[in-house]
Design brief:
The protein is mostly beta strands and 84 residues long. The chain is built from 1 helix and 5 strands. Strands 1, 2, 3, 4 and 5 form a 5-stranded antiparallel β-sheet that branches.
Length: 84
C-alpha cells in the first residue's frame, strides 16, 4: 500500500545516477546486491490535487536472494536528502 500511494499520480522529471551503480553477484550465484546514489525530481498531487515538486538525492543498498528461479529482495537500506 505504501508504494501504491507513493507512486500513484507521480511524474518523474529526473531519475539520474550520480555515480555508476555497483552491482555484484556472489560467487555461488545465490545472493546479489546493488548500491546506488541518484538524483530525483518528481511531482505528485497533494491532498488538494495540486502538483507539488520534490527534489532529493536517494542513496541505497538492496540485497537479493535467489530462491529457485526467482530473485527476492531481502533487504533495503536507504536515505533521502534534499537536492541542492
Amino acid at each position: 500500500r505504501h508504494f501504491t500511494r507513493y507512486f500513484k499520480g507521480a511524474t518523474y522529471l529526473q531519475w539520474e545516477d550520480m555515480v555508476a551503480p555497483i552491482i555484484r553477484v556472489s560467487a555461488d550465484g545465490s545472493m546479489a546486491w546493488m548500491i546506488v546514489r541518484l538524483k530525483v525530481r518528481r511531482t505528485q498531487a497533494d491532498a488538494a490535487a495540486k502538483a507539488k515538486e520534490q527534489n532529493f538525492v536517494y542513496a541505497g543498498i538492496m540485497t537479493y536472494e535467489k530462491r529457485g528461479d526467482t530473485w527476492v529482495r531481502v533487504a533495503n537500506v536507504s536515505t533521502f536528502e534534499p537536492a541542492r
